[in-house]
Specification:
The complex is a heterodimer of chains A (about 290) and B (about 450).
Chain A: H1 2-50, H2 55-61, H3 64-75, H4 80-115, H5 127-139, H6 142-153, H7 157-181, H8 186-193, H9 198-234, H10 240-250, H11 255-292
Chain B: H1 2-45, H2 48-54, H3 57-68, E1 69-77, E2 83-87, E3 104-105, E4 110-113, E5 119-122, E6 127-131, E7 135-142, E8 146-150, E9 160-163, E10 166-170, E11 174-179, E12 182-190, H4 208-228, H5 235-267, H6 275-290, H7 293-304, H8 308-332, H9 336-344, H10 349-387, H11 390-401, H12 405-433
The chains are: A mainly alpha (about 290), B alpha+beta (about 450).
Membrane topology (chain A): Multi-pass membrane protein
Pfam families (chain A): BPD_transp_1
Keywords (chain A): Cell membrane, Membrane, Transmembrane, Transmembrane helix, Transport
């Protein structure tokens, strides 16, 4: 009997505790929600205030520009194939910038990752240094490096390539390092026992383990870099973005060209997206097959 | 007989192994060779050999030197005889009449001490420059004969550049230029000039201790005002610009998440039985993602004009596609058992979603959104440079003028700090809101981990 009452008292206490906890959680959640909503509202208001055109006005005009471009492109639709061929070299340049930057960035990222992974690093004491270097490379937006390099090296694909490569090295360095942390050290030790030097241990012991993952991340980065290289073209570093800006600054009369560039860019991005999706699926699948074999 | 087959098998196996090895070897050497070949192609396609010729190393040197040092001009107008002292030759950095830094002694003969024994004297007629180890150089600007110079005996050193109407002397202490119309001396200093206060502020040149003393005596507001409205560095505007950039990223990312969440339900197989709607929704996501942020920026800038709202909307539109895809995939991986469990208690549809689905996808959703918040801070900088808003605009403006490289260096530093801060902040928030999200186990502390409390 006494036990039962004690149990009931416990139960009541537990229920009270639980209700109190739930209530507190609700209050916290409510406060957070109100804070979030008011931040969004205030932020939107500020942004709207500081914008040249208002939100409500702009909303009505949002389709004007696409409509203008489309009507002109349709009027001159006979010239579209010609434009597509004309801008193909620029597209190839944009793709080349992205590909070369991804390759260089992946190489740099691999080195940074290996140097900043516990157990693999050549100078274990300098791991924090290489981590910070990767962080800084990642934090610098491509456009900053590109604009400065354009000033020194002149316009063209090289500044864009270097800028994207630096950012890619930082971003991939971090991801690669997370992968490399999970790599087995046994092959590395085995190689060390045969007298292999650091580069050999990494190339023969670590890279084969992490290769598929590295390539998968690099492919993902390639997608992102195509977009980045198009944007950098817009600020003066060659490629399709540069052509787009030229076509746009001419304004009416050249919108058919702008439409052709929009189309090329869109198709390329979607195509690369799809291909890299397939490839990445196969890579992870292939890696699994390798483990079972 | 059986042994023969085994032998055959062995030979076959050995053969197979050999083939495997050959293939691996081919791959092992082929792939790097392919990469090298591609890089070689790029080397010539991007005209790297011609790059050295096109590159302007002088620009590079100015850029680097200017980003950490500045020069003060002392200029004498040779017609009126007036001497003015200005930082970087800018109007905003000019000393008022009769005022000068302590290394310039104004008078009938203005004496400029360039340190290390280098002394320049702007006399009424003649400019003199004492160069240690060389001698005294005299240059007299005249109406009729151009600049008449008297050099110490010997060959003309290569750091003196002389023509009929101009003489330029460049030493490690500074630079002197004399033409018919004016004589000018540059003295170089390390640091960012007038970073705290401009010359017209009474607080210019005071020590930090002195400033602290004055601030304590009730001048803190005035000191802050002079710093915040510094006409050269425009600290107030820069802070606004950074705020705008972060605002763009914040509005864009969270706006996209709010829009993408309901749409993701429409695109998820287990929540929407209508296949055509699902298909249409997915194509919408693909389309929005495929039309790159660049194109959205261009289109939206036409409608909304330059400013942070345009940037926020560009990020919002692009990311709704990405979030829609990620969220719908997360929704398809939701465990049905929890929803059934909630249903078994008699919950209606809204409650099933609220207690069966949302708690399952919140961690994925939040961590993705917070990852994007950091990367969008960078995107907002870039988009700002295109549409004109935020720190991206200030940076492009500073680069286009091609002389304020110290400001460019300052902005780059601020951008890097801003992105790193957002990176840290989003990581911190992720760890707070999602239990077990941090990969590394935390050190046990005295008080237990606080409960995640994002949703009630």
């Amino acid at each position: 009997m006494t036990d039962l009452t004690a149990g009931q008292g416990d139960l009541a206490r537990i229920r009270d505790d639980y209700t109190a906890l739930t209530r507190r959680k609700r209050v916290y959640g409510g406060i957070l929600l109100i804070l979030f909503v008011s931040l969004m509202a205030a932020g939107f208001h500020t942004a709207d205030d500081r914008n040249a055109g208002g939100f409500v006005d702009g909303w009505r005009r949002i389709l004007d520009y696409p409509a203008e471009v489309l009507t002109e492109a349709l009027e001159k639709s006979a010239q579209l194939p010609g434009h597509l061929v004309h801008f193909l070299p620029a597209l190839v340049e944009t793709l080349n910038i992205a590909a070369a930057a991804t390759l260089l960035g992946a190489l740099g990222g691999t080195v940074l990752a290996l140097l900043s992974t516990r157990g693999l690093a050549y100078w274990p004491r300098l791991i924090p240094l290489f981590r910070r270097i990767a962080d800084i490379c990642r934090a610098v937006p491509e456009i900053v490096i590109a604009l400065v390099l354009i000033f020194v090296l002149g316009g063209g694909p090289v500044p864009a390539m270097i800028a994207i490569a630096i950012h890619t090295a930082g971003a991939l360095g971090k991801l690669f390092s997370e992968v490399a942390e999970n790599a087995s050290l046994k092959p590395v030790e085995g190689l060390e026992s045969t007298g292999a030097n650091w580069a050999q241990r990494m190339y023969l012991g670590v890279i084969p383990q992490v290769g598929p993952n590295f390539v998968s991340y690099a492919l993902l980065r390639f997608e992102i870099n195509i977009r980045a290289s198009a944007i950098l073209g817009f600020v003066g570093a060659g490629g399709i973005g540069y052509e787009l800006r030229n076509a746009m600054s001419w304004g009416q009369g050249r919108y058919d060209e702008a439409a052709a560039i929009f189309l090329l860019l869109f198709v390329t991005i979607v195509a690369v997206d799809q291909i890299s999706d397939r490839l990445r699926a196969r890579l992870t699948h292939g890696a699994r097959a390798g483990v079972t074999a | 007989m059986s042994t023969a087959t085994t032998d055959l098998d062995l030979i076959h196996l050995k053969h197979q192994a050999d083939r495997l090895f050959t293939r691996k070897r081919l791959l092992g050497f082929g792939l790097p060779a392919l990469v090298l070949a591609y890089l070689a192609y790029i080397f010539f396609a991007f005209d790297m050999p011609g790059l050295a010729a096109r590159a302007n190393w002088e620009n590079g040197r100015t850029l680097v030197a200017d980003s950490y040092s500045y020069k003060t001009h002392v200029t004498r107008d040779n017609r009126s005889g007036a001497v003015s002292v200005a930082v970087e030759g800018e109007r905003k950095g000019t000393w008022s009449d009769g005022q000068a830094p302590e290394w310039v002694a104004l008078g009938e003969t203005t004496v400029i001490d360039l340190t290390g024994g280098h002394i320049v004297r702007f006399g009424p007629e003649t400019v003199e420059y004492d160069i240690p180890g060389y001698g005294t150089l005299r240059a007299t600007p005249t109406r009729t004969q151009g600049v008449v110079t008297e050099l110490p005996p010997g060959d003309l050193p290569d750091w003196i550049n002389q023509s009929k109407n101009r003489i330029t002397v460049t030493t490690e202490a500074g630079r002197l230029t004399v033409t018919r119309n004016r004589s000018e001396v540059f003295r170089y200093f390390t640091g960012w000039e007038l970073f705290w206060f401009t010359l017209d502020s009474p607080y210019h040149g005071l020590s930090p201790a002195e400033l602290a003393r004055r601030a304590a005596n009730g001048e803190a507001g005035a000191i802050w005002h002079d710093f915040w409205n510094n006409t050269m560095w425009r600290h107030g505007d820069v802070a606004w610009a950074i705020g705008e950039t972060i605002l763009m990223a914040f509005l864009g990312t969270f706006g996209a998440a709010i829009i993408a969440l309901p749409l993701a339900f429409l695109a998820a197989r287990n929540f929407n039985p209508l296949a055509p709607v699902r298909f249409a929704m997915r194509r919408v996501f693909d389309f929005v993602r495929g039309v790159d942020a660049l194109i959205w920026t261009v289109v939206l800038a036409r409608a909304f004009g330059p400013g942070p709202l345009t940037g926020a909307l560009a990020i919002l539109v692009t990311d709704s596609g990405t979030f829609g895809k990620i969220f719908s995939e997360a929704l398809e991986n939701v465990d049905a058992k929890q929803i059934e469990g909630v249903q078994s208690t008699g919950a209606n549809a809204a409650q099933r979603y609220r207690f069966g689905v949302i708690p399952q996808i919140t961690p994925v959703l939040l961590s993705q959104v917070l990852y994007f918040l950091e990367s969008n801070t960078r995107s907002a900088t870039i988009i700002g440079a295109i549409t004109g808003g935020g720190i991206g605009l200030l940076l492009t403006q500073a680069i286009i003028t091609q002389k304020d490289w110290e400001e460019v260096a300052y902005y780059i530093l601020l951008i890097v700090l801003m992105v790193m801060l957002m990176d840290w902040f989003s990581g911190w928030l992720r760890a707070r809101l999602i239990r077990g999200e941090t990969a590394r186990p935390r050190k046990p502390r005295g008080n237990p981990e606080p409960e995640p409390f994002f949703l009630p």
